[in-house]
Amino acid sequence: MKIFITGNQGFIGKRLLEKIAIDNALKEVTKEQIVVKGWDDDYFKFSDWRKRLKVFLDDFNPNVIFHVGACSDTMEQDANFMMVRNYESTKIISNWAKSKNVPLIYSSSAAIYGTNNEYPSNLYGWSKYVAEDFVHNNGGVSLRYFNVYGPGEEHKGAMASVAHQMFMKNKNGEEVKLFPNKPTRDFVYIDDVVDANIFAFKNYDKLKSDYIKYYEVGSGVARTFEDVMEILDIEYSYHDESVIPVGYQFGTKSDFWMEGWGPKFTLESGLTEYKKYLENS
């Protein structure tokens, strides 16, 4: 079985690769029967990256594609940079998957809901919105992730979870400040996200649909940032309201999961496990 994972060096892609190639999450085949290859951001530095991507797909000829890789910076304002990585590459991969009848599981985002629960409020959200639509029209399965946290996100900087950012601030003796007015998020542990991808592949034929455009991947519970700090035992204060960015989402919560799938981690159990990892890092 040949598996293609885009963004295989990123937060979610790397964890997914490990679960498949090392932990043998696909129990129906042995480790020796699995070949996993990835595609990362380095390829975009070549002017002929489109040709290289098509050649790669033809040569590797994967049995399944997990399209995880993307620019996830919600503050990015360069439209060409964002759309090339999040939309143009998705079109090539999706068209190839459709032509070969290969399952494609696409990593989408709850950023699509924006501030009005209808349309995105930033460039990242719009790039996911149009790419998700393209994948659906080609018969792929899209998973909308909510606020993912857990081991392996260290490289994400300002885009890392609030749990990671505030833990490191506290560890370094810096003041921890939250936005006021108690915004809420659906925090989902990384292993639940990986499990959702594997579930989507194993149940692909049941999940792909002309009518269902996406499935949500979250905990199903909206929690405050204060909840996160209290579970991590971190003291905090508040920013002034003036620092809250324009287009900031004040609440997210998933409620449309794949039938038969559900998260295994609560915020308490996920953060307890994550805290051990952060303390030993």
State the main characteristics.
Rossmann fold; two-stranded parallel sheet; alpha/beta; 281 residues
Notes on the structure:
The protein has 281 residues and is of the alpha/beta class. The chain has one domain (2-279): NAD(P)-binding Rossmann-like Domain (Rossmann fold). 38% of the residues lie in helices and 15% in strands. The chain has helices at residues 11-21, 49-60, 79-100, 123-137, 162-171, 190-202, 204-207, 225-231, 267-279; strands at 2-6, 35-39, 64-67, 104-109, 141-145, 147-149, 177-178, 184-185, 187-189, 215-217, 223-224, 237-238. The strands form 4 sheets. It has a 6-stranded parallel beta sheet with strand order 2-1-3-4-5-10, with helices on both faces. A two-stranded parallel sheet has the order 6-9. The protein has a two-stranded parallel sheet with strand order 7-12. Strand 3 (64-67), helix 3 and strand 4 (104-109) form a beta-alpha-beta unit. The two termini are 34 Å apart.
Unreliable sequence segments: none
User: What is the CA-atom radius of gyration, in angstroms?
Assistant: 19 Å
Overall strand count: 12
Characterize the biggest β-sheet: 6 strands, parallel
CATH topology: Rossmann fold
In short:
This protein has 281 residues and is an alpha/beta fold.
SSE map:
Layout lengths: L1 E5 L4 H11 L13 E5 L9 H12 L3 E4 L11 H22 L3 E6 L13 H15 L3 E5 L1 E3 L12 H10 L5 E2 L5 E2 L1 E3 H13 L1 H4 L7 E3 L5 E2 H7 L5 E2 L28 H13 L2
Parallel strand pairs: 1-2, 1-3, 3-4, 4-5, 5-10, 6-9, 7-12
Antiparallel strand pairs: 8-11
